Amino acid sequence: MNVDLTVIWAFIIAFGVFGYVVMDGFDLGIGILFPGFKVGSERDQAMNSIAPVWDGNETWLVLGGGGLLAAFPLAYAIILPATYPLVIAMLLGLVFRGVAFEFRWRNPQHRAFWDMAFSGGSLVAALSQGMMLGAILQGIEVVDRAYAGSWWDWLTPYTLLTGLGVVAGYALLGSTWLVWKTEGEAQARAYRLAFRAAFATLALMAAVSLYTPFLETQYWERWFTMPNVLFAAQVPLLTAIIAFLLLRGLVKKQEVAPFLYALALFLLGMAGLGLSIFPYVVPDAVTIWDAAAPERSQIFMLVGVAITMPLIIGYTGWAYWVFRGKVGDEGYH
Predict the structure, then answer these.
(1) Strand 327-328 vs strand 142-143: parallel, antiparallel, or unpaired?
(2) pLDDT of res. 86
(3) Residue 5 near residue 298, CB atoms below 8 Å
(4) pLDDT tier at 331 (50, 70, 90 boundaries)?
(5) Nearest residue to 18 via CA among 319, 304, 271
(6) pLDDT: is 328 or 81 the higher one?
(7) Can you tell me whether residue 328 is helix, strand or coil?
(8) CA pair distance 126, 88, nearest whole angstrom
(9) Distance between CA atoms of 50 and 56, rounded to whole angstroms?
(10) d(CA 45, CA 141)
(11) Which of 31, 66, 139, 251 has the CA that lies 20 to 30 A from 312?
(12) Which DSSP string do the residues of 26-85 spell out, in sequence order?
């Protein structure tokens, strides 16, 4: 029973993280691309497109982070000390971004400053999240069930590569979202930015995918030994198909499909991540069963999640349904 609950909680945390990445990802992506839009109508349309949903999207960060603490406390106690500078940078970036979102409308004289804060906060948050992923994948030094590394272990060429990959991926989500939601010159610019973001994302995904198997023997065995390779090969194959459909959709000026293809790329990336590390939560050091909370705690929390998660999904879906149209300078039509 405990093994089953632990696996269930692993999938719940993975779902929460994926929910955050795809929903807050396009918010952060819009911030990353913000300097590429003209001051005035284009920037106003970009901001208005996420105005009704941006703060609700961050609910998934609470679910993912809080769920990790509650369900896998040992993993939380190891990962956080290993990535404290990145966590602090991410939170400060999100704070600056949120404050800028509210204050840029208050006084036009200060709008340039708040636009810079919105863009900078988004970039810092995205880069930090990508580098945290890289720091976990490259391995964390663990001794006696505690972090035993230094303050700067997270800073390596590999983490910089994964950080840039997440920045490019978020930019792709943001640009394809704006393709869907905006019109006129803002949409035309979003198409151009989406092409650049797509090529950058695919190039960095390929670089990270080629780099990762050399980090741990476990990764190499998962991807390149028989019979694992027969299953693992489906991930890059599907990624190539989705990449082709994404680029074709942008060429044909499709509006909704490119955003869905960008989401599919992230889903495949997460599938590849799971294939690489499962059942470890700290690669080659701590499994999900080692890190799991007691069975009674898992059951108690599962009841709460069974109540709250449908509510979160329900109100999130309702918000997106209500604001399903195009956006203009003054808001949604």
Answers:
(1) unpaired
(2) 92
(3) yes
(4) low
(5) 271
(6) 81
(7) strand
(8) 13
(9) 10
(10) 46
(11) 31
(12) HHHHHHHHGGGSPTTHHHHHHHHHHTTTHHHHTHHHHHHHHHHHHH-HHHHHHHHHHTHH
Please give the structure tokens belonging to residue 218: 């476990």
User: For tokens 């369900």, what's the residue?
Assistant: 71
| Residue carrying structure tokens 């602090």 | 88
Q: How confident is the model at residue 330 (pLDDT cuts 50, 70, 90)?
A: low
Provide the Cα torsion 116, 155, 146, 285; round to 10°: 120
Type of residue at 61:
L
Average pLDDT on 9-27 reads: 85
Tell me the two tokens of residue 7: 């696996």
Stretch 286-315: mean pLDDT, rounded?
Answer: 85
Domain extents in the chain: 2-320
Cis before residue 279, ω within 30 degrees of 0? yes
